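Two records follow; treat each independently.
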Amino acid sequence: MRLATFNLLHGRSLSDGAVHADRVRAAVADLDADVLGLQEVDRAQPRSGLLDLTALAADALGAPVHRFAAAVVGTPGQTWQPWHAEADAAHPQYGIALVSRFPVQRWQITELPAAPIRSPVLTGEGLLLLKDEPRVLLAAVLETPHGIVSVGTTHLSFVPGWNVRQLRHAVRAMRALPAPRVLLGDLNMPVGPVRAFSGWRPLARAATFPSGTPRTQLDHVLVDPRGATALGRVVQVRTPHPPVSDHRPLVVRIDR
């Protein structure tokens, strides 16, 4: 069973700044993941050609199950508001997604509130004070060849300290689901703090950011120690260098 996490950067290539469906499809297909957590996912966004990136990723993997969870309506870095249940699906949305080749028994969505302060972020325009976006945890109870496995994905805040609060909130929410439990995502923290503040065990240690010459691991595959032995053992870890995104995906193969 292959588990993967990938911050898509809404499918944008660093080489030309463009989003092309074929590039995204090829990048995802190369992962050959049975379960894939995606972050920075666009739906109906002009900047990504109005693509449904979740559906595109599912098609690339031949995965019959997928779900997108919006964090905001509008476009990050421009005009946006927190997602609300009445939002029209045709409006530009941005969030996370989970794609699975395995059947899903049930879904769980947990809101992770945004940091209440603006924080300095280095952008192409220099150091800017940016308002943080709301965050969300998307989790599913899956019927896998390894038995029932609960898998969640999230993209935590870039605000130090606040991402710790969100991480603790996420693992508490995951523990309402059956073990073994796995969390996939861009947690905006290196592996040491992630392990210390979550209490969960990393299944892989590999630098994933920035994609060209990775120096730190922001993207993680974590397992809850409670019930982890039922999941199996890690037999392979990959961090391929796809033609899209400023993050490298993290792929973990597990066998029994």
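The next record belongs to a different protein.
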Amino acid sequence: MWIFYAGLSALFAGITSILAKAGIKETNSTLATALRTIVVLILAWGMVLIVGSQNTVMSLSVGTWTFLILSGIATGASWLCYFRALQIGEVNKVAVIDKSSIVLTLVFAFVFLGEQLTLVKVAAIFLIACGTLLMVQKQPLENKVANGSWLVYAGLSALFASLTTILGKVGIDGVESNLGTAIRTTVVLIMSWLMVFITNKEVNVKSINKKELTFIFLSGLATGASWLFYYRALQDGQTSTVVAIDKLSIAVTVFFAYFIFKEKLNLKALLGLGLIITGTLCMIF
């Protein structure tokens, strides 16, 4: 059953990138992240109330609280970097870099969680890494200064995303998955709004385009759904396999980016996408 949950997580994660890109054309990415986190938080705590796991909050150990909070901080950092990268870069390329976090996650899972790193997994890592390099096209010389920073933000997003998974896996041991997600989201909300006030972007709330605000709201719903399914799958399944399935969301993102944003892939990028999907499927099967 956890494989089904991981599949749903991938679907909603892919949709999230598209909705978020549509919602930050003019809206500051940090402010958009803070606003959409409110939606995710409401959805997460709503699920906690539905399943009745709020009664177990006081029974959580100090260690569990620590890892959940650290996971939330890593998630917040990943989100802030990811949506900044989305705002200034092409959604196809940003999503590819972000999803390459699976390589770091596999290494971290081997080092910190003791999960076996088999020959198949090593081959999968190689395929995904090669595919990522093929998909991330070099910018024309005149655009390097203007557009090169998206790569830094996307890379940081991938790093923090991999840390999120490892910390989240440890933190949800013995914790109802919806409750763990809600606690982490609360940390992300605090962190994202803190960044908004530090950068004085709260004054722009009233001037947000209603259309973009709608997309931000919808991306929050998609993110919330993806998270709930992801951490439900992570609680029962092997970390490396759950992460691999979730990273198939890149195919969903590329598909919608082609029709909505007219972002086309050349032959080299298509080959790269094929290698990423092949490597991911190797991880699953």
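Discussion point: The mean pLDDT is 87. How would you locate this feature using only the token line?
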